[in-house]
C-alpha cells in the first residue's frame, strides 16, 4: 500500500531566529519513499541537514523576521501489515543487551525511572518473558491514563503522568518507557506519522504521533500504550530517549506558532489526485523553544 503524508507549519519570528527542525522521515524508511519529501521553506533560506547522535535527520536554518513557512508532501510505500505481535520474544538479559541499546535502560529527562522503580517491581516483578512484560505495562498505562488533548503539558514527567492519570500520546509513551526501563528492558521513544488506516476515522484533527519501541527477543518492536492494539502505517521521523531528544522544532529566539497542519492517509488504488488540503492539528505536538541567550 501507499501512504500520502505531509505537513504545513508556519512560525512568526520577531527577529532572525536560528532553528533546528526534526521533520524528515527517518533514514530507515528512505528506501520506501516514492515521491516528494523535500522540506520547502518560504521565504527561501539556506538550510543544512545533519545526522544527530541517535541517527535522526535534523535541518538547520536561520528564520528571518516575519513569517516562515515549512511544507512537505510525499508518498511512501508501506507493507500494510499491522504492528508485529511476538509473544515468544524473550527478555534479553541485561549483560547481553547490545552496547548501543544500553542507554535506553537508563532514566532520562521525562522518563524519571528513579521515582517509579519500586512501583514497577511491585506491579510487574512476577511476570515472566519479555513480550508479556512489555504488553502488561502497556495494558496498565492504557487503563490508568485518561487521554485528552486538553491535558497536554510540555513538562510532564512519567511519574507525574502516573500521579495525575491524564495525558496525551507522549505521556503514555513516557510512562510505558520508564516502567520498561525500571524492569531492565531497553525502551526508546518514537515520533512520526500515524494515520487512521484500518481503524475508524477519528473526527478530530490529525497530528504527529508518539509511541515507543522495546528491545525484546533480540530486536526492537513497536508498542503503543495509548491505542494499545496493533496499527498500520507508522512512519518514523525520529527516535530518542524521550521527547526531549526528538522535538520537531527547536527555536533559539522569540517565535510564535502561526499554523500547524498534518496529513496522513492511505492512497487508494488508482488514485492520482494531488495532496489534499491539510487538516488543522491539535495543540499537543512536541516542540521546544530555547531562549535566545542560550
What does this structure look like?
- This protein has 294 residues and is of the alpha+beta class.
- Helices cover 15% and strands 33% of the residues.
- It has two domains: 2-78 and 247-289, Immunoglobulin-like; 94-245, C8orf32 fold (Roll), CATH 3.10.620.
- It has helices spanning 117-124, 131-144, 158-164, 169-182; strands at 2-13, 17-21, 33-36, 40-42, 47-51, 57-63, 66-77, 146-147, 166-167, 187-193, 209-216, 219-223, 235-240, 249-251, 255-267, 279-280, 288-289.
- It is globular.
Question: What is the structure about, briefly put?
Answer:
This protein has 294 residues and is α+β, with helices and mostly antiparallel strands.
Number of domains: 2
Shape: globular
Can you write the helix and strand succession as a string?
EEEEEEEHHEHEHEEEEEEEE
SS strand fraction: 25-35%
- CATH architecture of the largest domain, by name, is Roll
Helix content: 10-25%
> What's the tally of helices?
4
Strand tally is 17
Q: Would you tell me the overall average pLDDT?
A: 92
CA gyration radius, whole angstroms: 19 Å
Under CATH at level 1, the class of the largest domain stands as Alpha Beta
Query: Which blocks of ≥5 consecutive residues have pLDDT under 50?
Result: 273-294
CATH topology of the largest domain: C8orf32 fold
CA distance, first residue to last residue = 45 Å
Amino acid at each position: 500500500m501507499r501512504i500520502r503524508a505531509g505537513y504545513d507549519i508556519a512560525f512568526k519570528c520577531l527577529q532572525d531566529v536560528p532553528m533546528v527542525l526534526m521533520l524528515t522521515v527517518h533514514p530507515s524508511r528512505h528506501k520506501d519513499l516514492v515521491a516528494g519529501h523535500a522540506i520547502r521553506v518560504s521565504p527561501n533560506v539556506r538550510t543544512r541537514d545533519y545526522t544527530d547522535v541517535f541517527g535522526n535527520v535534523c535541518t538547520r536554518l536561520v528564520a528571518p523576521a516575519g513569517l516562515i513557512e515549512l511544507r512537505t508532501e510525499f508518498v511512501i510505500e508501506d507493507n500494510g501489515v499491522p504492528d508485529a505481535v511476538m509473544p515468544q520474544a524473550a527478555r534479553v538479559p541485561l549483560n547481553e543487551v547490545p552496547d548501543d541499546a544500553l542507554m535506553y535502560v537508563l532514566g532520562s529527562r521525562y522518563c524519571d525511572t528513579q521515582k517509579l522503580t519500586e512501583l514497577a517491581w511491585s506491579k510487574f516483578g512476577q511476570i515472566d518473558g519479555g513480550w508479556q512484560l512489555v504488553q502488561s505495562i502497556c495494558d496498565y498505562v492504557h487503563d490508568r491514563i485518561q487521554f485528552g488533548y486538553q491535558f497536554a503539558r510540555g513538562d510532564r514527567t512519567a511519574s507525574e503522568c502516573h500521579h495525575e492519570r491524564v495525558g496525551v500520546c507522549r505521556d503514555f509513551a513516557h510512562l510505558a518507557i520508564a516502567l520498561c526501563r525500571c524492569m531492565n528492558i531497553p525502551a526508546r521513544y518514537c515520533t512520526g506519522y500515524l494515520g487512521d488506516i484500518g481503524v475508524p476515522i477519528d473526527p478530530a484533527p490529525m497530528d504527529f504521533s508518539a509511541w515507543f519501541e522495546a528491545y525484546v527477543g533480540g530486536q526492537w518492536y513497536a508498542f503503543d500504550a495509548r491505542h494499545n492494539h496493533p496499527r498500520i502505517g507508522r512512519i518514523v521521523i525520529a527516535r530518542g530517549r524521550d521527547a526531549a531528544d526528538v522535538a520537531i522544532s527547536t527555536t533559539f529566539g522569540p517565535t510564535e506558532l502561526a499554523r500547524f497542519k498534518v496529513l496522513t492517509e492511505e492512497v487508494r488504488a488508482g488514485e492520482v489526485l494531488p495532496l489534499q488540503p491539510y487538516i488543522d492539528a491539535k495543540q499537543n505536538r512536541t516542540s521546544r523553544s530555547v531562549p535566545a541567550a542560550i
